[in-house]
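Sample entry (296 residues):
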Amino acid sequence: MWIADHWKDYEVLDASGGEKLERWGRYILVRPDPQVIWQTPHSHNGWKQKNGHYHRSAKGGGEWEFFHLPDEWSISYSLNAETALTFRLKPFSFKHTGLFPEQAVNWEWFSDLIHRQSYPEGKPVRVLNLFAYTGGATLAAAAAGAAVTHVDASKGMVSWARENALASGLENAPIRWLVDDCVKFVEREIRRGNKYEGIIMDPPSYGRGPKGEIWKMEENIWTFLQLTTQLLSKNALFFLVNSYTTGLQPAVLSYMMHTAIVKSFGGHVQAQEIGLPVTSSGLVLPCGAAGRWQRT
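Predicted structure, serialized as tokens:
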């Protein structure tokens, strides 16, 4: 398992009874987590000192209950000794805060690949970030020196990502911010003949595009993965696929990426669960899976 264990401003304090107790900077939140099927005593003081609690409804969805929690606040992540990324947080619909902390373990991986790549001056590594959400991966790639194309179907998420770029001192970084359906964007990029050295995709289990296009991970990911590999350049460095869909285990991601990428580009694939350490138990909370292809 790849574990995101370098956080200072975030930690999973405890997990029990379908919920996780998290510290986001100065504030403590309780949020649902379907992976937490065990029942252990709520002995950590944070359960009684929470600032926000998302209550899941039996009818679907749910709602937040707040206790002295500001509308917005920030936390930072040190990507390396010289670089810190800053993220604006704000609890919104369906339990989210605007950040998936477990992805930090992937940020470090591809940032290192970008940083070590040597191209002629003025020719940065080109990275495409699809389903880019609030820009964690975009900022990590840009901070490492890449020119990033950030694509998400939600105008609000792209605006939020730009706020994070500003907070991180990356407002002048070479980032293209695009509100677009990811599948249609990839199809147009293929017709244009554009290529990228790195591709990141973090598709939802289920989603809708700006014009109501339906995305279902299990039904669409293989076709989309095949399509998107056409955008890899001859000097491609990496391809990252994240999955929060239960049926897409690491072995499935590995098989797909071997078939779609390795046969054409060489290199090798690794796939693992990703997780976050739990302070109270010393164990690791699983948080989905990731498949990584890299040329060397």
